[in-house]
Amino acid sequence: MNVNSGFQHQENCTNDRSFIKATGGGAYKFSELFKEKLGISLEKEDEMDCLVTGANFLLKAVNQEAFTYLNGSKEFVQIDHNDLYPYLLVNIGSGVSMIKVDGDGKFERVSGTSVGGGTFWGLGKLLTKSQSFDELLELSHRGDNRAIDTLVGDIYGGMDYLKIGLSSTTIASSFGKATSHNKELEDYKPEDISRSLLRMISNNIGQISYLNALRFGLKRIIFGGFFIRSHSYTMDTIAVAVHFWSKGEAKAMFLRHEGFLGALGAFMSYETHSLDDLVVNQVMPLPVNASLGTDTNYDPLEGDLNGTESIQCSVYRA
Amino acid sequence: MNVNSGFQHQENCTNDRSFIKATGGGAYKFSELFKEKLGISLEKEDEMDCLVTGANFLLKAVNQEAFTYLNGSKEFVQIDHNDLYPYLLVNIGSGVSMIKVDGDGKFERVSGTSVGGGTFWGLGKLLTKSQSFDELLELSHRGDNRAIDTLVGDIYGGMDYLKIGLSSTTIASSFGKATSHNKELEDYKPEDISRSLLRMISNNIGQISYLNALRFGLKRIIFGGFFIRSHSYTMDTIAVAVHFWSKGEAKAMFLRHEGFLGALGAFMSYETHSLDDLVVNQVMPLPVNASLGTDTNYDPLEGDLNGTESIQCSVYRA
User: Got a GO cellular component term for this one (chains A, B) (predicted)?
Assistant: First the structure.
């Protein structure tokens, strides 16, 4: 959930008729706060609509937007606009939505999973006492999941189980080693726990995404959402999962502006609703930090509402 | 992993030529221990072979073996032996194997997931300090996952998101509420954590199973393995997941002897290898408890090796 915003007003921000187009859970969660502190109404746009509109816009308008990622190597993909559809859009927020996109405004949410970014951050916070999503992600970078996951080799005396195509290093059971009777939570390194969690969740999302792409015969799987955040290990795990489950036939693709699909879509909805009135687009700094509570932790899954970053606005002159 | 055993010897159990057919990880893990303490060799049989052989045997030989489960109601399914294949066998041990079964000895492991019973017990042990798998499972019975999971209604101001078919009570993000900044692990009830874990894992297994059944056009999904252990809430969650993702088109089926597929298959492999020598089948008590270490915790995912239970043996007279 993030607040994705454009901004419209008549004369000034505190005018009763000021409103911001917003989408996602944040549009509900922060609605009262925006009204109370800034006098701005959040005008809710459908989340799936916005995600798809944002992704389509990026894929068509931005050069070098989509890329593949494998073994630390990023490769930009040039997509022919006439051959863009259909594709599977996988948006990883606190939960995960999988959307079959057939064209502009033509889409269906075909699947999803509750095991997403909120699960990583929620379980990770309980297990490691990390104070922020970024801290947890950073931890995973230094960890080794083999301390906690049971690998195929751990089960089969160090050997592969080649008959069914599993190498000794494949994870047989996520957190399987944590069943050990003589160890407690304190005996495991937070960085190993974080790494194991990240692999479990990324791998699971990659697998379910691939199975859905297969189901609908979709060549491309495009991953977006703030969970990824250009984090190389996350992208690598998702890419490896798609590669593994598809036996090399499918490739995961990522977007440079992955965290802003909904925001872009909400912004573009001004166009749909009142293009004639939209006369000026500009970036306008807003004192968000002072107005939106005391929470100083950066939590992308709850909306990027900290810091003094600007919110992209469309100034609306009636 | 469990040790699945039949037992063969010439004159007595400590004879050098005594051996037990065994399969799964336990056949590797406990191999030395059996040799050292009982003078018995574990003769390893292929795990997938054994699972399939065991399941096929049960489905054909045992009356009222398979049943569906929904809303607390068990309904036995009479399966026509001539219309048994193909089906998807989902064996949930510490990890999960998904096997497309086309006939006796005809099968392919088509998928699986590392998020299985080991994940439930491993994560559950770290988070709740439960001392046994059974204790953790029992906890889940009394818990309420809504204290920890983010539901669709939590995101959308108590409302459904009907446009994409999600009711307000659907889990949007497993453990999503645990991202709350002002709460630590100690602030959550162990029973709520256990329930949330069980739902997350059972739901995920149900979803991936259904997607694989769909992929291969399999009408039946049969769940086995010691994770389920006739636990009604586990079966209910898996059944609901299959119902939800298939929009009511597929039904999850369970087996009465779910935890013994591999053991049965290993036992039946005597038949394959040396039927002529197999002259007596009997149940023979073995002093397992005294011989296999000091671990008094019951851990079905590591094999049921505690207590004074008997191991089914085939006495082999050369």
Answer: nucleus
Cβ of B122 within 8 Å of Cβ of A177? The answer is yes
Nearest-CB residue to B174 (from A29, A115, A150): A115
ipTM computed for the complex: 0.81
**What's A69's DSSP letter?**
E
Question: Is the CATH number of domain A117-202 3.30.420.40?
Answer: yes
* 3-state DSSP helix/strand/coil % of chain A, to nearest 5: 45, 20, 35
What does the pLDDT look like over A68-84, one tens digit per residue? 987 788 899 988 888 99
Contacts of B181 in chain A (CB under 8 A): 295, 297, 299
Please name the residue ranges forming H helices in B166-256: 190-215, 232-245
Q: Are the Cβ atoms of B119 and A299 closer than 8 angstroms?
A: no
> Which residue's structure tokens are 């193909």?
B86
d(CA B289, CA A213): 50
Contact A225, A205 (CB under 8 A): no
Domain with CATH 3.30.420.40 in chain B: 117-202
Considering only the beta carbons, identify the residue of A25, A109, A173 that sits closest to B94: A173
Q: In Å, how far is B110's CA from the nearest CA of chain A?
A: 9
Strands (E) in B94-219, as ranges, are: 96-103, 106-113, 150-151, 171-173
pTM for this structure? 0.81
CA gap B44, A107 in Å, rounded: 51
Query: Is the CB of A46 inside 8 Å of chain B's CB atoms?
Result: yes
Q: Which chain A residue shows the shortest CA-CA distance from B214?
A: A215
